[in-house]
Every structure is written in structure tokens, then in C-alpha cells.
């Protein structure tokens, strides 16, 4: 094949009237280098313009037009007579539109925005939550120590990235460490003392756990306390369930658990760690909590903030810690919370405060907070907005926002780029919504679409 190629090349060159030089001829005919007094001037490099123009710093929307359209839409009877609204310019922080903007409104799950900002600011995006196994007080005693990771899983989670920490992996590592010292039977206990206080918030309605909205909040849980994959039903004692599952997995990996008279203990501080697994980083936990509106995960994040800020890991301590962090960021004004996830009907957040929280997370000056925005559902595509904005293709993918829903409460807070290219945030909140499933949601969607078109 090489010979054929060479022959064809020779024929082509001859046909073109050229003379093929041998290697000797090339050596003989190569010109001598000529010294130059100065090198030639550099050729200027001309680059093409950006494929997509930068967005976010376009002209401000006309206030009069925006205000007129939003004021009319806020009058929709589906929203009731307790409605607050705010639109904030990200670059300047200016309030572009407000209606009851400084009055606290029940935020429902938009509370998760406040918790998420505090978690990223306090813990840092790359922090993880550890679940450990320690040895003591004897060489044949071990304790499963909960670190507060509700994503810890006893099941495989195909298609989930990053993968949650695995209780099976923890059991395997524990068995390996024990068998390396010749131990195949141990006393197994568990420690969930990291969290304090009641397992359900005093301000929650009694039906939240039975209906499956949230599990009892404990420092040791698997699969968010759900009884089975895809089920909303929750176990009554997540810590005990996680412990029993761990014991079963240990047996699978060749280590038997002896009977103990008291399974729940407090592990000694000096106990030796023999195995551990870590959660996904906080930034990924925040994204998951916001996209899925995950109550269990957000409550865990609030308690992690409490621990980092030196407060009790209880409902009260977590609420105080979140507000303390927001205070350092100068974002606490207009925020009053009693839980992390927004199930408490006593929470109050002013629309302007909520829009400013989103603006802080959107700002290029706060890259450590950007996971709040990347975690927000996308209009018409993901999470709790996947089924919304379906009648307005013009804003599909252009709005990122967190929803909030309780009995008589509907809220929507997020960010968009206006038609003129201005990056803005918004919060629309109603907490005296009359009956009529979906009507208030549609009214809120129209408000957000008006902002995007501004």
C-alpha cells in the first residue's frame, strides 16, 4: 500500500511539472540561513466576538411598565388578599418593584433558600457529613455514630450523582477492620446524640410525619426514614431502623452481633474510629434539597449550621444559627424562622428579604453561594417546576425558582434574565390563598413570566 501511495505521489508531482528532490538534493539545495538585523513585527491576533453575548447587565426594565403589569397580575383573585411581591436588580441591589415587600409572609418551602444560603456560607460548599463506626469500651464493642446525614442509604441509587454514602460500604469496611484483628463477633450499639431536643418541631402540624412530608429528625437515619423505595411512609424511629439494618449488613459481611441489653448509647469521645463514610459535598446536598424540595435534607443542613456555629443541634438552635449566619451576611432583616425546611406555618419572610437572598446567591461576588441557584428548579424542566409554565414556552428554561406550598400558602422566588438582558431576582408570596388547586400556582407563574419579559 505504501508503494502504491509513493508511485501515485510521484505521478502527481510529475504531472504538475515539478521535480521530486532526493534527500541528498534537499541537503545540497537548502538555503543558508540569513541573519536579520531585527525580527519582523508580530502579526496582530484578531479574535472573533463571543458566540453568545454576556447576559445580566442589560438595561433596567422600565419601572412604570413593569409595575403596571405586575400590579394588575397581583390582583388575580386566585392569590387571595394577602400577597407580597418584590423584584430586585442583582447588580445594584435596587428594589425594582415592591408590593407589601417588607411585610412578612408565610414562606412555606421558600424557607429552604434561607437555610441553603446559611449552610453554604457557614459550612462551605465542600464540607461533608460523616457517619462513623468507633471501637470501645472493649475491643469487641463497636458503636455506629450518626453524623446527621439523611442521604445515607442502605440501597443502591442508580442514576444519582454524586452517589450518597452507603451503609453497606460502612458495614463492609467495619467487618474488614474487625476481621483484620481476628474478631468475628462484637457488641454493636448506636449513638444518635448529636441532635438534641424534640424530633418534630413544636410548630409543625401533627399530620406532617404520618402523611410522609418529613421523617422524625434524628442524627442517624437511612433513606430519609422511608419504609421502602418510592414510599412516602416514614418509620417511627429512624435511628433504630438504621442500627438494625447495619447489624444485618455486618452479618452479611461475616461479623455477628451479640445481643446487647442497651443498644442506644453515647460513644466515648476517645473511642477509636475504625470505619467511616462521607456524604456528598454540601453544595450537592443544597442542590438536591432545592430541586426536590427535600424537607429531611434541609432540616439536616440547618442542624449542621447549628453545630458549626456552636449552638445546640435542635430546632431552636438551628433557627438561631441560620439567622446568625444571615445576619453576618446582612441578609437577616425580614427573616423569622422556626425550622429549616418551611413546614412551620409560623415562619415569616418578607418578599424583599427573600429576593435579596436569591440576589446574594446569584451575585458573581459570592461564588460559594451559587449552588443555591444551580439547585433551583428550572421552569418547564426540573424539580417542582417541571410541570409548570407549560403554557408559556417563551420562558421555558429562562426562570429558576423555588416553590413554596402549604395549606393556603403559595410562593415562588427565584431569578431570571429579562428580555433586555438584565439579571433580576423576584419573590411572589401569598398566604391566604382561597381553595382551588393549581390556580394560585398559575397566577404566580404569570407574575414570573412578566418579569422575564420585562
Automatic annotation (TrEMBL):
Residues 1-18 form the signal peptide. Its EC number is 3.4.16.4. It is an enzyme of class 3 (hydrolase). Keywords: Carboxypeptidase, Hydrolase, Protease, Signal. GO terms for molecular function: serine-type D-Ala-D-Ala carboxypeptidase activity. Transmembrane segments: none annotated. Belongs to the peptidase S13 family. NCBIfam families: PBP4. This is D-alanyl-D-alanine carboxypeptidase/D-alanyl-D-alanine-endopeptidase. It comes from Streptosporangium jomthongense. The lineage of its organism: Bacteria, Bacillati, Actinomycetota, Actinomycetes, Streptosporangiales.
Amino acid at each position: 500500500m505504501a508503494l502504491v501511495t509513493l508511485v501515485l505521489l510521484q505521478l502527481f508531482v510529475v504531472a504538475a511539472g515539478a521535480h521530486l528532490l532526493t534527500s541528498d538534493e534537499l541537503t545540497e539545495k537548502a538555503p543558508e540561513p540569513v541573519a536579520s538585523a531585527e525580527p519582523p513585527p508580530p502579526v496582530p491576533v484578531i479574535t472573533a466576538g463571543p458566540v453568545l453575548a454576556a447576559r445580566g447587565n442589560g438595561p433596567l426594565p422600565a419601572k412604570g411598565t413593569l409595575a403596571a403589569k405586575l400590579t394588575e397580575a397581583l390582583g388575580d383573585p386566585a392569590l387571595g388578599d394577602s400577597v407580597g411581591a418584590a423584584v430586585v436588580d442583582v447588580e445594584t441591589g435596587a428594589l425594582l418593584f415592591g408590593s407589601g415587600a417588607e411585610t412578612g409572609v408565610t414562606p412555606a418551602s421558600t424557607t429552604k433558600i434561607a437555610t441553603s444560603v446559611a449552610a453554604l456560607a457557614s459550612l462551605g460548599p465542600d464540607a461533608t457529613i460523616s457517619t462513623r463506626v468507633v471501637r470501645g469500651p472493649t475491643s469487641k464493642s463497636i458503636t455506629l455514630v450518626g453524623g446527621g446525614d439523611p442521604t445515607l442509604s442502605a440501597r443502591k441509587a442508580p442514576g444519582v450523582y454524586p452517589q450518597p454514602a452507603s451503609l453497606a460500604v460502612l458495614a463492609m469496611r467495619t467487618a474488614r477492620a474487625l476481621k483484620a484483628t481476628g474478631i468475628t463477633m462484637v457488641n454493636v450499639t448506636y449513638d444518635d446524640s448529636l441532635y438534641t431536643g424534640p424530633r418534630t418541631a413544636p410548630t409543625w402540624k401533627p399530620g406532617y410525619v404520618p402523611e410522609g412530608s418529613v421523617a422524625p429528625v434524628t442524627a442517624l437515619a437511612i433513606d430519609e426514614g422511608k419504609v421502602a423505595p418510592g414510599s412516602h411512609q416514614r418509620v417511627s424511629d429512624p435511628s433504630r431502623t438504621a442500627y438494625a439494618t447495619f447489624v444485618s449488613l455486618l452479618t452479611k459481611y461475616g461479623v455477628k452481633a451479640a445481643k446487647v441489653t442497651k443498644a442506644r448509647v453515647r460513644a466515648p469521645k476517645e473511642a477509636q474510629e475504625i470505619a467511616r463514610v462521607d456524604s456528598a459535598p454540601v453544595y450537592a446536598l443544597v442542590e438536591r434539597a432545592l430541586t426536590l424540595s427535600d424537607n429531611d435534607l434541609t432540616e439536616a443542613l440547618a442542624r449542621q449550621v447549628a453545630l458549626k456555629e456552636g449552638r445546640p443541634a435542635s430546632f431552636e438552635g438551628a433557627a438561631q444559627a441560620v439567622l446568625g449566619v444571615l445576619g453576618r451576611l446582612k441578609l437577616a432583616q425580614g427573616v423569622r424562622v422556626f425550622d429549616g425546611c418551611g413546614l412551620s406555618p409560623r415562619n415569616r419572610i418578607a418578599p424583599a428579604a427573600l429576593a435579596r437572598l436569591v440576589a446574594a446567591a446569584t451575585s458573581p461576588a459570592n461564588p460559594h453561594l451559587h449552588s443555591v441557584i444551580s439547585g433551583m428548579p428550572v421552569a418547564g424542566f426540573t424539580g417542582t417546576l417541571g410541570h409548570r409554565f407549560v403554557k408559556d414556552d417563551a420562558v421555558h428554561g429562562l426562570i429558576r425558582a423555588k416553590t413554596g406550598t402549604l395549606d393556603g400558602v403559595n410562593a415562588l422566588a427565584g431569578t431570571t434574565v429579562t428580555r433586555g438582558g438584565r439579571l433580576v431576582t423576584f419573590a411572589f408570596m401569598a398566604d391566604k390563598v382561597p381553595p382551588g388547586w393549581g390556580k394560585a400556582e398559575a397566577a404566580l407563574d404569570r407574575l414570573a413570566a412578566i418579569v422575564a419579559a420585562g
